[in-house]
TrEMBL record, chain A:
Pfam family, one: SBP_bac_8
Designated name of the protein: sn-glycerol-3-phosphate-binding periplasmic protein UgpB
Domain of life: Bacteria
PANTHER family according to UniProt: ARABINOSE-BINDING PROTEIN-RELATED, SN-GLYCEROL-3-PHOSPHATE-BINDING PERIPLASMIC PROTEIN UGPB
Secretion signal span: 1-26
Record keyword Signal present: yes
Family as reported in the entry's similarity comment: Belongs to the bacterial solute-binding protein 1 family.
Record keyword Signal present: yes
Keywords noted in UniProt: Periplasm, Signal, Transport
Subcellular localization, as worded in the UniProt entry: Periplasm
Functional summary from the UniProt entry: Part of the ABC transporter complex UgpBAEC involved in sn-glycerol-3-phosphate (G3P) import. Binds G3P.
Gene Ontology cellular component annotations, sorted alphabetically: periplasmic space
UniProtKB/TrEMBL annotation, chain B:
UniProt membrane topology term: Multi-pass membrane protein
Matches recorded under CDD domains: TM_PBP2
Assembly, per entry: The complex is composed of two ATP-binding proteins (UgpC), two transmembrane proteins (UgpA and UgpE) and a solute-binding protein (UgpB).
UniProt-listed PANTHER family: BLL4140 PROTEIN, SN-GLYCEROL-3-PHOSPHATE TRANSPORT SYSTEM PERMEASE PROTEIN UGPA
Transmembrane segments: 12-32, 71-96, 108-129, 156-180, 201-220, 265-287
UniProt family annotation: Belongs to the binding-protein-dependent transport system permease family.
Keywords for the protein's UniProt record, in alphabetical order: Cell inner membrane, Cell membrane, Membrane, Transmembrane, Transmembrane helix, Transport
Protein source organism: Mesorhizobium helmanticense
Entry protein name: sn-glycerol-3-phosphate transport system permease protein UgpA
Gene Ontology biological-process entries: transmembrane transport
Length: 450, 294
């Protein structure tokens, strides 16, 4: 027994002395990356990580999915409070304001500069960069997976009513839906009205129409921003959606009811939906045999000068309190991700769009957008770059925006169930949303958004 | 001379209690104390600091119409689901106790639902009650628009009550059956010989004898309906439509973890704790009087 013990001790001592004597073949510096994608997308991220680890020998990124965006943020906060945070974390678009005030990050632009990487910030599509940048234009985090909302339409159904193009205005949409209904289509258009659809119904709509969601330029200029969607074109939009719903032109489709709207579209049950370009791949893969479909930019009301739509998705934040070696690795990782070749790999395997012009050009040059199944995804780029971002179409920088989105869902449900009028419902949304913003501001006294 | 083993000092007794006390302190008093502290401050989620606000969190919660709506929804849910789960379990247990054909089989089958995790059974019920694809789709085909939990708050509430009751029928059944079987057969046989029928025997003999079990289950069911409903609500309705099923425990979760409002959530959990304490005291004070312990 004691022989074994001695033997083990000697072995251990030997191992230590060997590892001390040979620092040259030290293991690569490991650092953690937490992300919020799951399922198919998780596998793509893991492949991306593997590619990074194989591309060099100095660093090794350990990628862990936390299931979804909410859980990633919650788990990261818990880990941060316990001092065990990952080096890089993926935070969704609406978490940006919370992150900026957290004091828990290392600015990504500084990180790159310190580690000798030159990043051409003008290469990012402005609509994407400005969403995540400070009011002064500094990039505290780097855009990662990005998408925007599009209108999916069934070409065969529209052909039946004599249309070969998607409607460009909401006035046309109304007429077309009516025609589709008259032509015997049970569900001309599908929407859902939970907190998740705030993105396409309220946020994207407001941006395209250059309508503010909140004061202080949607919150970019201060924590005292308050909602003002009850005074914009958004009210008219909800009124129209409600009217079409009452006339049977719009059906509500959600997972809870048995079929979500993407499934409803892919199966040919419904002819129009508004959804993320990220679903382009899903529709391609799951569509009913012979479904003839395309995507178009979201419609506007007649006479509107179209502005850029908003980016959706998430960006990569580097957290504070890590070692220099880990930061070096994180910088190398961020540099790897914004490489055009990575962009091609990423967009091919997911529905997400490239975030840089060079990435987009590289993909175009490779013929990515010329043929099915990727043809049509360039519409997302057109929508994002429809104009230079205005003060209002930069993005939304409001605290606890997840709760405001939930409140959006609540009030839309009340409106569609005829519990309140359209104006009253949106007024309540503003009132309750303002209480959330008020609370956020009180939690961070004497602090300002960077 | 005393023959029992006695401990000379009371400290020895304390010493034996320490491990238990330590556990309770670590897993109950310490977090509960932390929750009280958080409820009196405004916590920055990332731990950057906090501000003492006294009772402001409670004031803003109690002045919010949404919160009162949440309390009402919780009480409705607790009342109906407890009533349903206990009544159905009582009837099933009484029938099983009568040793009808196949009662052994029922005994096993009826216990199963309690063994299923809330989210799993919620997922099953979501499919069953889906208005377009599930069992209710048949009903909807006969009466279009009859069942719409996506927009109709009453339907959504009915869905989560059905799921929760289904689970607790199994739990209650075990206890009721055990209580019935603990009643001496001779009592029932004597009553039968005196000429009383099944129903009469149930109300005059069995029911009074199982009141302690009924009371116990009442307390447990009400308490659990406030706490164990989370998984079901999360999967089936996410608190909607229009907050119709936003039960207190779910609101704590969504405000705290999704909304990162830790202080507001802490204050809500204090209120929920007080409410459950008050309800339990009420039950012991007023309902237990009617319980006949043997």
């Amino acid at each position: 027994m004691s022989m074994i013990k001695h033997g083990l001790a000697a072995l251990a001592a030997g191992t230590i002395s060997v590892s001390l004597a040979l620092p040259a073949i030290a293991a690569p510096t490991k650092f953690d990356f937490w992300f919020g994608l799951s399922g198919d997308l998780e596998r793509v991220v893991q492949t991306l990580c593997k590619n990074f680890n194989e591309s060099q020998k100095e660093y090794e990124v350990v990628c862990t999915s936390q299931g979804n965006y909410d859980a990633t943020l919650q788990n990261t906060i818990a880990a941060f409070r316990a001092g065990k945070q990952p080096t890089v974390v993926q935070v969704y678009d609406v978490g940006t304001a919370t992150m900026m005030l957290s004091g828990a990050y290392k600015p990504a632009d500084k990180l790159m500069e310190e580690n000798g990487y030159k990043v051409d910030y003008s290469d990012y599509f402005p609509g994407i960069a400005r969403y995540y940048a400070t009011s002064k234009g500094e990039m505290l985090s780097f855009p990662f997976n990005s998408s925007t909302a599009l209108m999916y339409w069934n070409k065969d159904a529209f052909a039946k009513i004599g249309k070969t193009e998607a409607p460009k205005t909401w006035e046309d949409v109304g007429a077309d839906l009516k025609a589709l209904k008259d032509a015997g289509y049970e569900c001309p258009m599908a929407i859902n009205i939970s907190g998740n659809e705030s993105w396409q119904l309220m946020e994207q709509f407001s941006a395209i129409h250059n309508q503010p969601i909140a004061t202080e330029n949607n919150g970019y200029d201060g924590l005292d921003a308050r909602l003002e969607v009850n005074k914009t074109k958004f009210v008219q939009y909800v009124g129209d959606l409600k009217k079409w719903y009452d006339e049977g032109l719009i059906k509500i489709k959600s997972k809870d009811l048995g079929q979500d709207m993407v499934q409803a579209f892919a199966s040919g049950t419904c002819e129009v939906i508004l959804s993320s370009v990220g679903d382009h791949g899903t529709v391609t893969k799951t569509k009913k045999e012979g479904l003839n479909w395309d995507v178009a930019e979201l419609p506007t009301y007649a006479g509107t000068e179209r502005k850029n739509s908003l980016v959706g998705g998430a960006s990569l934040w580097v957290l504070s309190g890590k070692s220099d070696a880990e930061y070096k690795g994180a910088a190398a990782f961020l540099n790897f991700i914004q490489d055009p070749k990575t962009a091609l790999f990423w967009s091919t395997n997911t529905g997400y769009i490239p975030v840089t012009k060079s990435g987009f050009d590289y993909m175009k040059a490779n013929g990515f957008y010329d043929k099915a199944p990727y043809k049509g995804r360039e519409v997302a780029i057109a929508s994002l770059t429809a104009s230079e971002p205005t003060e209002i179409t930069r993005g939304i920088r409001l605290g606890n925006f997840t709760q405001i989105r939930a409140e959006f869902g609540t009030q839309m449900q009340a409106i569609f169930a005829n519990k309140v009028s359209v104006q009253d419902g949106i007024d309540t949304l503003v009132k309750n949303g303002d209480a959330i913003l008020d609370r956020f501001q009180q939690t961070y006294p004497n602090k300002t958004l960077p | 001379m005393e023959k029992r083993v006695t401990f000379s000092k009371w400290t020895v007794g304390i010493l034996f209690a320490v491990p238990q006390l330590l556990l309770i302190f670590t897993f109950f008093y310490w977090p509960a104390g932390q929750a009280v502290y958080w409820s009196l401050t405004l916590q920055q989620p990332w731990g950057g600091g906090n501000i003492w606000v006294g009772l402001d969190n409670f004031k803003s919660i109690l002045s919010s119409a949404d919160y009162w709506n949440s309390i009402t929804a919780s009480l409705v849910f607790a009342g109906i689901s407890t009533g349903l789960a206990m009544f159905i379990a009582l009837v099933l247990a009484a029938l099983t106790d009568r040793q009808l054909a196949g009662s052994r089989f029922y005994r096993v089958v009826l216990i199963w639902p309690y063994g299923i995790a809330a989210p799993a059974l919620a997922l099953a019920f979501r499919f069953i009650l889906a208005p377009e694809a599930g069992f209710m789709a048949v009903v909807n085909r006969m009466w279009p628009g009859f069942w719409d939990p996506g927009l109709d708050g009453v339907d959504a509430m009915a869905s989560i009550i059905a799921a929760f009751s289904w689970k607790y029928v199994g739990y209650n059944f075990i206890f009721f059956l055990a209580a019935f079987q603990a009643i001496p057969r001779s009592l029932i046989e004597a009553a039968a010989m005196d000429g009383s029928g099944v129903v009469r025997r149930f109300f005059d003999i069995q029911f009074p004898l199982i009141t302690p079990t009924i009371f116990f289950l009442l307390v447990i069911n009400i308490t659990e309906s406030f706490q164990d409903s989370f998984g079901i609500v999360d999967i089936m309705t996410s608190g909607g439509p229009a907050n119709a099923t936003n039960l207190m425990v779910y609101k704590i979760y969504s405000d705290g973890f999704k909304g990162l409002d830790y202080s507001g959530a802490a204050a809500q959990s204090i209120i929920l704790m007080l409410l459950i304490i008050v309800l339990t005291i009420f039950q012991f004070r007023f309902i237990e009087r009617r319980v006949h312990y043997r």
